[in-house]
Specification:
The chain is mainly β and 126 residues long. The chain is built from no helices and 13 strands. The strands form 4 sheets. Strands 2, 3, 4, 10 and 13 form a 5-stranded antiparallel β-sheet that branches. A 3-stranded antiparallel β-sheet has the order 1-12-11, with no helix packed on it. The N and C termini lie far apart (36 Å). Bound molecules: FE2/S2 (inorganic) cluster (FES).
């Protein structure tokens, strides 16, 4: 008999699709946490991560530039350009830097939801 597994992800409504600039990000407040939400329109994908850059503890990642590094989606902090993977949160530009937390994102029509408390690191394709 296989064990029953339940998805423990708690999805909260973040905003509407139109609230996020194409190929840019916004900051979403969830309880005491700031979450950076990105619409990677060039790839037709959405990502979310903590907004706090671990380098100098700046709430800045939602204002960072998104791009790719060897096909991996990433965000560069606007302060000192440290880059973080948007799929697993690890720092791509400095192996000694802390990783960031990433969250799954899902779309339902024009509504964007971010998942907290469950499996992290997945993404939706628009
Ligand atoms: S504060 Fe983000 S790279 Fe320095």
């Amino acid at each position: 008999m296989s064990p029953i597994t339940k998805d423990k992800t708690n999805w909260f409504f973040a905003c509407k699709v139109e609230d996020v600039p194409a190929n840019g990000g916004v900051c979403i407040k969830y309880k005491d946490e700031q979450i950076a939400l990105f619409h990677f329109a060039r790839r037709g994908e959405w990502y979310a991560s903590q907004n706090l850059c671990p380098h100098r503890r700046q709430m800045a990642l939602s204002r960072g530039m998104i791009g790719t590094q060897q096909a991996e989606p990433k965000v560069a902090c606007p302060f000192h350009k440290k880059t973080f993977s948007l799929t697993d949160g690890r720092c791509l530009s400095d192996e000694h830097e802390c990783a960031i937390k990433v969250f799954p994102v899902k779309l339902e029509e024009d509504r964007v939801y971010i998942g907290v408390g469950g499996k992290e690191g997945s993404v939706v394709t628009a």
